Amino acid sequence: MPKTVHLRALGSLLSALAVLCCQAACDGAGKPAEPRPLRWAADAEGGAPYIFKDPDDPAKTVGFEVDLAGALARELGRAIEWVQYDYIRLLAGLDRRDFDFAMNGIEVTPDRAKAFRLSRPYYVYTEQLVVRAEEDRFTTLEDCLAMDAVVGTLDDTAAKRLLDQLGIRTRSYDNQTEPYLDLQNGNVDAVFLDLPIAMYYAAGNKKLKFVGQPLNPGYYAIVFRKDQEELATEVDKAIEHLLESGELKRIYEKWRLWNADQARLHSGEIQDVLRESSGKWTPAVYVPLLLQGAAVTIEISILSMALAVLLGLPLALARLYGPWPVRAAATVYVEFFRGIPVLLLLYFLYYGLPAISDRYDLWIDLRLAPMTAAILGFGLNYAAYEAEIYRAGVRSVPAGQWEAAASLGMSRWLTFRRIVFPQAVRVILPPMTNDFVALFKDTSLVSIVAVVELTKQYQILSKSSLKYLEIGAATALLYLVMSVPLGYLSRRLEHRWGKGQ
Question: Are 346 and 377 in contact (CB under 8 A)?
């Protein structure tokens, strides 16, 4: 009898738990709980007019894709939450399932259509050529080719592919603000980007002007994984309804983006942009391009390290043996350049100096070429670290060495050059070699000043081909080929110079 009571009590408990679970799945009115919000990824860094921070209220995010996401949320009956994600990693993040879909002016291409589920196109873009207001040398891409002009554009875009196809020299950027800033500063001759970008960054700028007619039309689409067919189909229907109801037109008119090209959205003609890619992503295609990037990496590393060595040794000597004003100045240099990120320094050298030159109408032009800014930035930064290494190496030599040399009548400079410094080099060499290897890897930062080194070349190629693993392995191998011999050389020199100890 007690066992029966226990069983009945257990049954009642399980029934109560089942009721609680049902209540948790429903709201107070007995309706099913609302589905979780969809996570939409886009990059708001320099992302106008797609998505960017409201200048009047930086806590608020605005843009025509923000409005489109709101309209889609109403159509789907499901909340959509924005997730900040680096533009160049959007597709990789989607593969990782970090979010549900990507919408950030992503162009329809054959490679993307093959690897992902693309939505119905929601906008027809064209490309627009922009030059400085006083420029009269060219008005078309053909003129740019004939004049050997350097044209700024974005990585992995239809604009970049067209420029490459025509053989026009390009300078690639990570976001759309920097090409137009470089154009104003005279670092590029023109900028060729999507019309929505040009409308926001160049149309109202008195220093810039549009030339030629918009060309090379294409489509923006929302990107899903292949296993999200059901969600993608719902979004397709929502876009179709927004187009037919006129809501899509109202959004684009609000942002001054509606034009005659949008009639293509009704026809659904996407065959032109979905034609097969002409290039096949074999090692014969991407390895030579990676080698070009490796050559740039080597050039920046060697020249930057040479500058760091030339500055580092005098700084170390100034801190060790200079009068107090010189010691104080050297200390301030070391602490300053060790205390600021090299990324910030590169931004200042490349974008900040021209702004100073323009604002104060200086007699000297402070505009630096991308390679010059990269080498100077790394040289100044690493000189601070090298100075401390050299200072520690010199101080490691026993004071008796100085005294012995003085007893032989040697001057302090001769003593340093012939006695102290050769011994200090044995201490200096290992950490200096480590810094050189670190510099090889840190050169990936120079892409912010439009230098295409090895890591940047990898990003461009992997995004275009979607072969992240294959091209990444080749890139890693090149870094190893460049850095491992340095370690071997360091060990050989250490062994050779250490025999006398």
Answer: yes
Kindly report the number of other CB atoms within 10 A of residue 501's CB atom. Answer: 6
Nearest to 256 by CA among 303, 200, 214: 200
pLDDT tens digit sequence for 214-236? 999 999 999 999 999 999 999 99
The pLDDT value given to residue 450: 75
> Tokens standing for 188?
């590029």
Per the model's pLDDT, the better-predicted residue between 58 and 195 turns out to be 195
Q: Is residue 14 packed enough to be buried (19+ CB in 10 Å), middle (13-18) or exposed (0-12)?
A: exposed
What's the pLDDT at 483?
81
> What is the CB-side half-sphere exposure of residue 417 using CA atoms within 13 A?
5
Inter-residue contact 201 to 48 (CB < 8 Å)? yes
Q: What is the mean pLDDT of the chain?
A: 85
DSSP state of 351: I
Under a CB-based contact definition with an 8 Å cutoff, are residues 49 and 64 in contact? yes
What is the 8-class DSSP label of residue 117? E
Nearest by Cα to 119 from 196, 38, 37, 234: 234
**Residue 69 near residue 82, CB atoms below 8 Å:** yes
3-class secondary structure per residue, 419-470: HHHHHHHHHHHHHHHHHHHHHHHHHHHHHHHCCCCHHHHHHHHHHHHCCHHH
**CA distance linking residue 318 with residue 154, whole number of Å:** 45
Please give the pLDDT value at position 498: 55
In order of their start, the domains of the chain are 36-122+221-262 (3.40.190.10), 123-217 (3.40.190.10), 283-497 (1.10.3720.10)
Q: Does residue 28 surpass a pLDDT of 50?
A: no
Helix (H) or strand (E) segment spanning residue 475: helix 468-497
Query: CA dist 469 to 92, 466, 472, 474, 476, Å?
Result: 11, 9, 5, 9, 10
Q: Is 196 a residue whose pLDDT tops 80?
A: yes
Phi-psi region of 102 (alpha: psi -120 to 50; beta: other; left: phi over 0): beta
Amino acid 273: pLDDT: 45
Q: Which two tokens stand for residue 27?
A: 């709201």
Q: Give the residues across from 153 on adjacent strands.
A: 172
**Maximal CA-CA distance, the chain:** 111
Q: Which two tokens stand for residue 75?
A: 């159509």
Give the model's pLDDT for residue 57: 85
Q: How far apart are CA 88 and CA 43, in angstroms?
A: 9
Task: Please name every residue paired with 128 in a beta bridge, in sequence order, or none if there are none.
Answer: 193
| DSSP codes of every residue in 46-100 | T-TTTSEEETTEEEEEESHHHHHHHHHHHHHTS-EEEEE--GGGHHHHHHTTSSS
Q: What is the pTM of this model?
A: 0.72
Angle between helices 370-395 and 324-339 (to 10 degrees): 120
Token pair, residue 2, equals: 């007690």
Query: For the residues of 191-203, what is the DSSP string, one character each?
Result: EEEEHHHHHHHTT
